[in-house]
Each structure stands twice: as structure tokens, then as C-alpha cells.
Task: structure prediction
Amino acid sequence: MQEVTRDIPLRSEGELRLHAAIRAVLSPGIWFVLAAQIVLVFSMQWRVPADAAPLASALVIFLTATALLLFFYLQAGAFHALTLGREALSVGEIIRAGNTVFASFVWLTLKAGLLFALVINILVLMALLLTGSDLKSLTQALSAFFGPATGALAFVFVYWLPFVFVQREFRLLPSLKASLQIAWTRISHSAFLALLVLAPALATGFIPAESPVLIDALASVVTGFMGWIAYIYCTDILRQNRDVARDEASA
Result:
């Protein structure tokens, strides 16, 4: 899939925000990814019976891993395809686009997950040493803050995945550094992204842990949809800035 380039005048902040929302609403591909996300949420609720045969347990693990990989493929395809055009995204475009970036995206996700786990373990170890608490008590105390903290982290690094796919920069540390620099330079325009990324994470923190799965699914859809709007908005910003830089370089 080749990137669509057009002579489009610079858009204002309001136009970029409106375009991101409309494109997300009108994109069947995004709704397809959200539907897959819901299926994944429901499937993760099922547990293998304690007396199940080892073969059944192994089969469930295999099917779960396959479902996760398929979901990663759809996400990678959507992330990539949204950087190639400005129109509504179809399911076919996602499937075709995922083929070129899937392996790089999975490897990047694994590295990011390992880095996140390392940082969390270091922070927990420091908290244990400073407070003298046991691990179980500390985990219970911090569990209520995990959702908001994750939302805050997503807000800080909101430009990370847009930068990765716009610039095709799949190196972890350079892309994280660049995303922080972009977020800092655009801090005066961060209220819109805070509404899309940070507010849902804070709101989900008020959902009880034992809430029905339908509530969790609805929260997942709303949070995911707002996240896609944020991704499209950030992608449009980066593409517009890239086009301006190219025009200035060629002038």
C-alpha cells in the first residue's frame, strides 16, 4: 500500500480534531478492531476447569495466544493504514496493511512490555525498601492506582505509536525519546488529548473490580474508540509537520 499524498492546506487545530473524530466514526475498520477487542475481552473471562485434561489446557493456551496475535495484527494494520491516507478506513485496508508491519510491531510491543515490567519491578522494590511493607499488602494498596497510572503513562507517550508508524521508526528508545519531545513542544494543545486518553482512564478507576463483564466491555469500547480518535489526531499532526518540513527543505 502506497501513501496517499495530496496538496492539502494546513489545517487548524479545530479542523484536525473534527477530522479525527469523523474519520474514526466513519471507519468500518476501526469498528472491526473494536469488535475484535470485545471478543477478546469476553474470551479472556473464560477459565479452564481445574480438573481439565492437560491437552485441553494446552489447547486453550494455544487458542488464546493465537487470538492475541490476530488482535495485534489488526492493530498493526490499523495503525499503519491510518498513516497512508486521510479517508475512512476499511477492513480490507487493515488486513493488507498489517502484513508489512506486523513482525516489527510485535517485536516493538515485546520490548516495550519488558521495559515497562522492568520499571515497575524497580519501583515496587524501592517502595518495599522505603515502606517496609510486604509485597501482598503493597500490591493491594497500589492496585487502585494502576488504571489511572497507566492512563497517565499513555497520555505522556500519546505521540509514541503515531510517531512509530508515521516515521517507520521501530526502535524503542529513540521513538520514546522523540515522542516525549513532540509532546513537550505541543503541551499547549494537550487538553484535547487529555480528554481522550487521560479522562477515560481516570473514569474507569471508579468501576468496581467485580463489575459485570458487559460493563467492562462497554468501558473497553469507549476507551478504545477515544484512543483511536487520539491516534488519528496525533497522526495528522505529525504528517502535517512532516509535509511542512519537506516543503521548507525543497524551497
